[in-house]
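so my prof wants the structure for this chain in the tokens format not the other one, which i didnt know existed until like an hour ago. anyway here's the sequence
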Amino acid sequence: MNESPVTDLSPIIMTEEREARFKKVIRQRQVDLTVILENVHDPHNIGAVMRTCESVGIGELYVLYTDMKVEHLEVGKNSASSSRKWVNLHLYEDRETCFADVRRKYKRIFATHLGHDSVSLYDMNLSESVALLFGNERDGVSEASLQLCDGNFVIPQMGMIKSLNISVACAVTLYEALRQRIKVGKYDTSLLTEMEQEAMFEDYARRGRRTK
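here's what i got, hopefully its the right format
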């Protein structure tokens, strides 16, 4: 189930500065990087993750619920800020369908999970096409979902409490991806074709329209 922001067909009014900003953001969209959340129910955490996704150039977020039926996803307005307008949500109840859809667009899936074969976040190549899976703070990523991933990673921690809030863990991970992608120039040249950029511009213009 896709939950795209609601738009209308009212006239679009845009300044040159705003048009330039839209085009720059679209050029920098990282269409080969995304996040999957599994059984994360706190609206504020979901909103915070969405806000971080938007800030590093991610345009879509996958949300999977296998522990309960969810017809509409609640997102914390304050934690999400206005990112809900720019990030498409894909909501799933079936694990296999979710992973199949993700794999059609992203080459590899890695989960945050402490296991014998887990690698450090800082040893990963996050400049490649990848989806990053995060579970809830109580149970983490489910064993069934781990079986569908290509590997596991952990965020190094030096304190007594070896646990981070899900939104914090996601932010730390995505900003490491941002660092790596800046280093290899993935924000310098668009990953989208000109036609795709034009289509996205029209879509974003409708989402962010300013009327008199």
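also thought this was worth mentioning. Strands lie at 2-3, 33-38, 60-64, 88-92, 108-112, 119-120, 130-135, 151-154.
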